[in-house]
Amino acid sequence: xxxxxxxxxxRCAWCGWAWCQVTPQLTLLHGQKGxxxxxxxxxxxxxxxxxxxxxxxxxxxxxxxxxxxxxxxNAGVVIGWTKGAKWCAKADLATAWxxxxxxxxxxxxxxxxxxxxxxxxxIQDQDVEAGHWTALEQYGNQQADRLAGEAAExxxxxxxxxxxxxxxxxx
Length: 171
Known about the structure:
Elements: E1 2-8, E2 14-22, E3 28-35, H1 43-60, E4 66-72, H2 75-83, H3 85-89, H4 94-109, E5 112-118, H5 125-129, H6 135-160
Parallel strand pairs: 1-4, 4-5
Antiparallel strand pairs: 1-2, 2-3
Helix pairs in contact: 1-4
């Protein structure tokens, strides 16, 4: 599983989020993407929403008694998941994290463990060749980034037709 976000910015930030599941043979099994559900469009918020929807997909699978590894190129997602609900309640993204922790309780009821690990964003071929990252991590991150970019672009085009967007030079 891989998470991603993408934004158009700096003054007109419309974020998209995505998660995907890929096979060791570097095939995209499935994924999900969407526009950020918040009036505050930030990459950390989008990354947290990607985690939320990845967990929803896991719960929808009816799986139980299993462990999943979710890879994220966002340190905030990894830190938040590792530190736990009490830490996240004090974080800037407390409302976004609250939705994640409600789902965490459902995971525990079904004996599902999720490990969230940090990967580098935009892994290059030379990173894989040097053994720093795997081809699976590279491919998963690329697919999640692609899906998030598609979502952000769709969301941006829809909203840009309704609202005036200003670039930094116009402020």
